[in-house]
Amino acid sequence: MQDKTDFRTDLLRRISATKTTRWIRFALVAAMFLAWVAWMGQWWLAIFLILLFDIYITGYIPLTWWKKSPNKTLRAVMSWVDAIVYALVLVYFVFAFVGQNYQIPSSSLEKTLLTGDYLWVNKMTYGPRVPMTPVHFPLVHNRMPLLGCDSYLDRPAVSYRRLRGLRDVEQGDIVVFNFPAGDTVTTLTEDTPFYYDALVLEVGRSYMAQNGIIPEAGEADSTADAIGRRIVHSDKERFGTVKYRPVDRRQNFVKRVVGLPGQRLKIVSDTIFIDGRKQPVPAEAQFNYVIATRRALADDDLHRLGIARADLQSVDAAGGSYITRTSAPGLHYYYIPATTAILDALRADGTMTAAVRYNAMTDIDLFPAGVADSWTLSDYGGNNGLLIPARGLTVPLTPENWKIYRRVIRNYENHPDARWVDGKGVVIDGKPAPDYTFGMDYYFMMGDNRYNSQDSRFWGFVPEDHIVGTPMRVLISFDNDRGLFDGKIRWNRILRDANPDK
Fold it and tell me: SS3 of 184, please?
């Protein structure tokens, strides 16, 4: 009885001795914490309010023991450690539930977003995704700088769940998402355009060509895939280790939503049709052109027009045949990605004499393999268009539909053993499946740089659990072609709307 009385007395003493400022701080933190618990919909988390009460009011857990140490060095070091820990906890919650910065690494969304843009990505618009790998270092994505090891633990893992957001994903939104085809990676090629499926196919084809292997009719890709997988898994010096990435640790991509769940998408002569309705082209969308100019284009021209040096390719005189059928003396020919505004500017000052849209990417593998063999980047979707999966939508598993949706069923909806069996059709979880009902919504993504974007036309649909958020503002932007004192910082892009067409 004496111990209980002493504890009660001590508790009351500690509470009464607490300064008003700490009570105010506790009240603010507790209100934010309870709001977060309500948002999560997990009221059992409210038990941690006891911990917050002890941290701010009673102080039974000696978290600040170092403040009473006579050692000045220890107090100085621990004060920095304390500040860093608080900062990391704050960053963790902000990055996980509010938003985070993101760098544009490629030109796939030129000229809407530029290579070198640093964006603030809002995760609250669609509702933040509860971290699926909750134990991770908050300042890096999937690998620790310098060390090269994973920045997260595979366990514990949390099933996909998204908190309530402000609205759903809409047509035309620019969206940051985890790369769906990045579930399997090789550690030495993860940051290259060759994602795993494309890598093994290319390696297998190269091996077959070098060794004169001629597969049976209709077996070329499956043979190349099998050979490529064997080589990639065994040659660690060249490719590194093959490993699986959890959904929220896959590489981040940013593209524009051009197709929503349940819609049919078709592209005809570079024009997108959704459910048969023609869609507007974003103002900053660009295509590739062969152009003829009266003079050579200089660096100042490229800077004025917003064309990266790496995107400008000289074409020899024979290349002029794309425009004039015969080369004209004194003209210069270039292959460039350009918006309508760039072409208008070149015409207005008399520099350009002609331009013809030209797509050099014709001999490429498009999604879905075995169905899109006759499709191109400019004419895509076949006669009826490509049906985008939607939660609750049921499709018959015909041979063609199996080719279209097998990755969805196997990889994204967790039926890894699903397969096509001759004479039986599709077998899922050991049972024949004449049809399939999707468990998630999916999206079709494309870049505004239509001929220079690795997007859904190559690797397919983006599942809802891969959606990260939508860019809101350009924080700062750097031009890789300019020096620090020669226009390196694009001042006119700071705080610019990152999704101007919405």
Answer: strand
